[in-house]
Design brief:
Blueprint (H helix, E strand, L loop, with lengths): L4 H19 L10 H8 L3 H7 L3 H20 L7 H14 L2 H8 L3 H18 L9 H28 L6 H11 L1 H8 L4
Helix pairs in contact: 1-2, 1-3, 1-4, 4-5, 4-7, 5-9, 7-8, 8-10
Length: 193
């Protein structure tokens, strides 16, 4: 019987992710080693490297999966409407592991960089480039910068709101993000791309 490799690696990946999140409860992300992660997960280093290149990949993949889950739960449509963004902020506040929040509050820059990368990936997935071949270069540039601007805006809002310990309501944050990203959403949702 041939065993599917992806089925064998899934539990390992889950153990590695859980180990990292648990270690982050007591240790700043930037100070956690791969040895500590594998020891906590009860796995060999080679199992780690079969699944991930480095520890940043663990957190990046975890966050990308979280955002994908959020979007699936919230809405299947591609455009970001106001209620969707309110729900996104609610999910971030309710479902982000406390250990990740602690690392944001403690100012771990590496965590913030990984959050940006994952937000950027999520925006790229949500708004793929649909450049019209007749004007492709101009449209690709416009799409690229609209995408990056949207990623940056979401990242800043998410991080600052978290640093302020969710002082504003999810409703306020969703509406703020909706207003601030209006022109970017219009460009990214445009059928003429």
């Amino acid at each position: 019987m041939i065993t599917n490799v992806s089925n064998r690696t899934q539990p390992s990946k889950e153990w590695i992710t859980l180990a990292l999140l648990q270690l982050m409860e007591k240790t700043q992300y930037s100070h956690i080693s791969i040895t500590e992660i594998t020891r906590k997960a009860g796995l060999a280093r080679q199992t780690f490297y079969r699944n991930y290149e480095d520890k940043d990949d663990i957190l990046y993949e975890y966050l990308c999966d979280q955002y994908a889950t959020y979007w699936r739960i919230i809405d299947e449509q591609n455009d970001l409407h106001e209620d969707m963004l309110v729900a996104f902020f609610d999910m971030w506040q309710q479902h982000t592991p406390p250990s990740l929040l602690e690392n944001i509050w403690n100012g771990d820059r590496k965590v913030r960089q990984i959050i940006f990368r994952s937000v950027d990936f999520s925006i790229q997935e949500r708004f793929p480039n649909r450049a019209n071949p007749e004007n492709a270069h101009h449209q690709e540039n416009l799409h690229y910068y609209a995408q990056r601007s949207m990623s940056s805006t979401f990242h800043v809002i998410l991080i600052e709101w978290t640093l302020r310990r969710f002082r504003e309501s999810c409703d306020e944050m969703g509406r703020l993000a909706y207003r601030l990203t209006s022109s970017m959403r219009d460009l990214l949702s445009s059928k003429s791309f």
